[in-house]
Amino acid sequence: MIKNKGFTLAEVLITLAIIGIVAAMTIPTLISDYQDRVNVTKMKKMFSTLTNAYGLYLTEQGPIGRLEKTEDDAIKAFEVFKPYLKVARDCGTDNGEDCVYSGSYKLRNGDDKDSEGTPWLPYTDSMYYKVILADGASIWFRGSGSDKFDIDIFYDVNGKNGPNQWGHDLFEFMLKGETVYPNGIPGTQTEKFDTGCAPSDFKGYGCAAWVIYKGNFEYLKCDDLEWNGKNKCD
Fold this sequence. Notes:
By secondary structure, this protein is α+β, with helices and mostly antiparallel strands. The chain has one domain (34-220). Helices cover 32% and strands 15% of the residues. The protein contains 4 helices and 6 strands; from the N terminus they run H-H-E-E-E-E-E-E-H-H. The protein has helices at residues 9-61, 71-81, 193-196, 208-214, and strands at 87-92, 129-133, 138-143, 151-156, 170-176, 179-182. Strand 2 (129-133) and strand 3 form a beta hairpin. Helix 1 packs across helix 4.
């Protein structure tokens, strides 16, 4: 007599339950890791695009010099990079809600107000030149109005999609003289990673350089990383 060697219903259900539990535990991590790799690639590509674009501008025009926080200077800032960006939607210096998140971006510590308790204004006013790129990212340009830098460039890797938070999807590049800097490089006048990004209770302005040069978002997973020290969480 040949015995039936198939699985019982109970065994099948138990197996499916185990597979479901393992999938629930691993898939979110895999998706997060994949998205991190995508965003690292986008950050590096944007840094390369901005650097190469300004290099060509320097050859033809020379340093642009310090620009102020005005509508006219926002336009001048954008014109430097315009030929090298794949623009899907151009909002210019108008309201711009179609191009950038119109809410208040949060800091890494979760605050949506500055040190004086004033809510962050949306990046939609006329001192910013705003566009959506072909890959869905948003980028906007502003004269810095500062002796430290000539132009500020804000880059949201996923456009208006969340979490709309510094160091998560919003990053800053700065132009000074003949160089474009990602915010967070030690030895420059940008924010420093160790004091402007690393711990989760910091602001998050100084995260761009880490993503580009270290190639990860590990600072979102632990608070004890250092630019010249520990580069990955345990």
